[in-house]
Amino acid sequence: MRDSVPRRATGVAFAAVLLGGGAAGCGADSAKEDSAELTPSAAVAKAAENSEDITSLHYRVTGTVPERGRLTAEASMKTEPTAMTMVMTVAGARTKGGLDIRFVDEAIYLGGSGLDPAKSGGKGWVRAAPAVWGRGAANNNSYGVLPRSLEVSPVVQSTFLVGSKDVRRIGTETVDGTEALHYRGTVTSRDLRAAQSAAKDKATRDLRMERVDQFVNQGVDGALTMDLWVDGDDHAKRFRVRGKTYATQNDTDGGTLDLTVTFLDLNPSVTVKAAPAEDTTDLAADPQEG
Hints:
Structural class: alpha+beta
Order of helices and strands: HHHEEEEEEHHEEHHEEEE
Distance between the termini: 39 Å
């Protein structure tokens, strides 16, 4: 049985209004010898364990998602309290330019040259609330602005490979100037659920449940192929996820997901500010109503 990802019907309308349509340095410089001596499964498990220490992140995203097509993004996020700021550019969008996206104080703010000026009431920003980023499945709400794969935490995404039964080492490669060990495997939601069931304590089960929930949010139909690059400090440096996605009622007809995320800085200072109130239009209600 496929996992279902509930979506809000208002999200598609909201995104269409705001986007004007649109087409559907971390770690050491070299990998440590002791990391190379670990089995592939142990190496990705160690990187996943070390991800628990990441409370903020600066990262870059490139690739293709069914909901938008080709996109690029650069973002920073933090966990306490949860906040995220991102500039996302979609290749096929009718409104050209980057969309400035901020999640802070349980609201989403949208600005930048990618925002349709005819829909912002002459102001530089629009706001909607409540908005949630960084969780999984039904708990996220970006009003359809972000594709599913960008709604979840990249830190948790980077740990999916621990559920793989066929993970293997590809070799040593240079990623963004850093030497890293490259691993590849496939993983399904069933694999992650099996790992969750095998947990010996509640804290571990909860962590693994978060992993399952965020995997479900990807909308993957079957197995996800994942590449993971681990630096000399046993942290994820880059990951790539590829797979087919299924259709959802209010979101997309399904398609191919191929996304690469590069970790540029671990635990940087991250401040996300709300847009100026005097330059913001509130679109908390469904923009098709009224």
